[in-house]
Amino acid sequence: MKIDCECGYVIYDSSDCISYKASFIADLDSFDLCDKVEEQIKKLVVNIEYTASNKIDVDVLIEDTMIDLSENIIDYYGRRPIYQCSGCGRLFVDDNQFHTHVFIPQDDSVPKNLLRSIEGDEWKFNPD
Ligand SMILES: [Zn+2]
Asked: Which of 85, 96, 98, 109 could serve as 5's disulfide partner, Cβ 3.0–4.6 Å?
Protein backbone atom coordinates (compact mmCIF):
# COMPACT_ATOMS: atom_id res chain seq x y z
CA MET A 1 0.00 0.00 0.00
CA LYS A 2 1.14 3.54 -0.62
CA ILE A 3 -0.13 7.05 -0.09
CA ASP A 4 0.77 9.84 -2.48
CA CYS A 5 1.06 12.92 -0.30
CA GLU A 6 0.22 16.31 -1.76
CA CYS A 7 3.80 17.45 -1.05
CA GLY A 8 5.09 14.86 -3.54
CA TYR A 9 6.39 12.43 -0.95
CA VAL A 10 5.22 8.82 -1.23
CA ILE A 11 4.37 6.95 1.96
CA TYR A 12 4.88 3.21 1.66
CA ASP A 13 3.40 0.51 3.87
CA SER A 14 4.80 -2.79 2.72
CA SER A 15 6.59 -4.09 5.79
CA ASP A 16 6.50 -4.26 9.57
CA CYS A 17 8.18 -1.84 11.97
CA ILE A 18 7.50 1.36 10.03
CA SER A 19 8.71 4.43 11.93
CA TYR A 20 6.12 6.77 10.34
CA LYS A 21 3.13 4.54 11.06
CA ALA A 22 1.13 3.88 14.20
CA SER A 23 -1.97 1.90 14.99
CA PHE A 24 -4.26 3.50 17.47
CA ILE A 25 -6.87 2.18 19.83
CA ALA A 26 -9.81 4.40 20.67
CA ASP A 27 -10.00 5.19 24.36
CA LEU A 28 -13.55 3.81 24.29
CA ASP A 29 -12.12 0.43 23.17
CA SER A 30 -9.15 0.22 25.53
CA PHE A 31 -10.95 -1.56 28.38
CA ASP A 32 -12.57 -3.98 25.93
CA LEU A 33 -9.10 -4.82 24.65
CA CYS A 34 -7.84 -5.35 28.21
CA ASP A 35 -10.84 -7.59 28.94
CA LYS A 36 -10.07 -9.72 25.87
CA VAL A 37 -6.40 -10.03 26.83
CA GLU A 38 -7.39 -11.02 30.37
CA GLU A 39 -9.81 -13.60 28.95
CA GLN A 40 -7.02 -15.11 26.82
CA ILE A 41 -4.64 -15.25 29.79
CA LYS A 42 -7.26 -17.01 31.91
CA LYS A 43 -7.89 -19.52 29.10
CA LEU A 44 -4.15 -20.11 28.80
CA VAL A 45 -3.79 -20.78 32.51
CA VAL A 46 -6.67 -23.27 32.45
CA ASN A 47 -5.32 -24.96 29.32
CA ILE A 48 -1.87 -25.30 30.87
CA GLU A 49 -3.32 -26.64 34.09
CA TYR A 50 -5.58 -29.24 32.44
CA THR A 51 -3.92 -30.19 29.15
CA ALA A 52 -0.17 -29.58 29.34
CA SER A 53 1.95 -32.48 30.48
CA ASN A 54 5.37 -31.05 29.71
CA LYS A 55 7.25 -27.87 28.81
CA ILE A 56 6.74 -28.41 25.07
CA ASP A 57 2.96 -28.50 25.58
CA VAL A 58 3.19 -25.29 27.62
CA ASP A 59 5.27 -23.58 24.93
CA VAL A 60 2.78 -24.61 22.22
CA LEU A 61 -0.16 -23.33 24.28
CA ILE A 62 1.63 -20.04 24.93
CA GLU A 63 2.48 -19.64 21.24
CA ASP A 64 -1.09 -20.43 20.18
CA THR A 65 -2.38 -17.87 22.68
CA MET A 66 0.08 -15.23 21.46
CA ILE A 67 -0.96 -15.84 17.83
CA ASP A 68 -4.62 -15.55 18.80
CA LEU A 69 -3.91 -12.35 20.76
CA SER A 70 -1.96 -10.83 17.91
CA GLU A 71 -4.13 -11.88 14.97
CA ASN A 72 -7.60 -11.74 16.46
CA ILE A 73 -7.58 -9.28 19.32
CA ILE A 74 -4.78 -6.72 19.02
CA ASP A 75 -5.11 -6.56 15.24
CA TYR A 76 -8.87 -6.05 15.63
CA TYR A 77 -8.74 -3.21 18.15
CA GLY A 78 -5.55 -1.67 16.76
CA ARG A 79 -6.29 -1.94 13.06
CA ARG A 80 -6.81 1.76 12.47
CA PRO A 81 -3.58 3.24 11.16
CA ILE A 82 -2.07 6.68 11.30
CA TYR A 83 0.70 7.62 8.90
CA GLN A 84 2.84 10.73 9.00
CA CYS A 85 4.45 12.06 5.86
CA SER A 86 8.18 12.38 6.46
CA GLY A 87 8.30 15.14 3.86
CA CYS A 88 5.73 17.60 5.21
CA GLY A 89 4.41 16.12 8.46
CA ARG A 90 0.81 15.64 7.32
CA LEU A 91 -1.07 13.01 9.28
CA PHE A 92 -3.31 10.46 7.57
CA VAL A 93 -5.78 9.08 10.10
CA ASP A 94 -8.44 6.46 9.50
CA ASP A 95 -11.83 6.84 11.13
CA ASN A 96 -13.82 3.83 12.32
CA GLN A 97 -15.16 3.30 8.80
CA PHE A 98 -11.56 3.24 7.48
CA HIS A 99 -11.94 6.50 5.62
CA THR A 100 -8.69 8.41 5.69
CA HIS A 101 -8.62 12.02 6.88
CA VAL A 102 -5.64 14.30 6.35
CA PHE A 103 -4.34 16.75 8.97
CA ILE A 104 -1.82 19.43 8.11
CA PRO A 105 0.69 20.60 10.75
CA GLN A 106 0.08 24.08 12.09
CA ASP A 107 3.65 25.16 11.22
CA ASP A 108 7.19 23.85 10.64
CA SER A 109 7.83 23.43 14.36
CA VAL A 110 5.73 20.25 14.39
CA PRO A 111 8.08 17.24 14.34
CA LYS A 112 7.87 14.96 11.31
CA ASN A 113 8.57 11.87 13.38
CA LEU A 114 5.59 11.96 15.73
CA LEU A 115 4.89 8.25 15.31
CA ARG A 116 8.31 6.93 16.25
CA SER A 117 8.63 4.36 18.99
CA ILE A 118 8.16 5.55 22.56
CA GLU A 119 11.73 4.22 22.97
CA GLY A 120 12.97 6.92 20.56
CA ASP A 121 16.57 6.38 19.50
CA GLU A 122 16.78 3.42 21.88
CA TRP A 123 14.33 1.36 19.83
CA LYS A 124 16.00 -1.88 18.76
CA PHE A 125 15.82 -1.36 15.00
CA ASN A 126 15.77 2.42 14.83
CA PRO A 127 15.87 3.22 11.10
CA ASP A 128 16.89 6.86 11.51
ZN1 LIG B 1 3.77 15.20 2.58
From this structure: 85
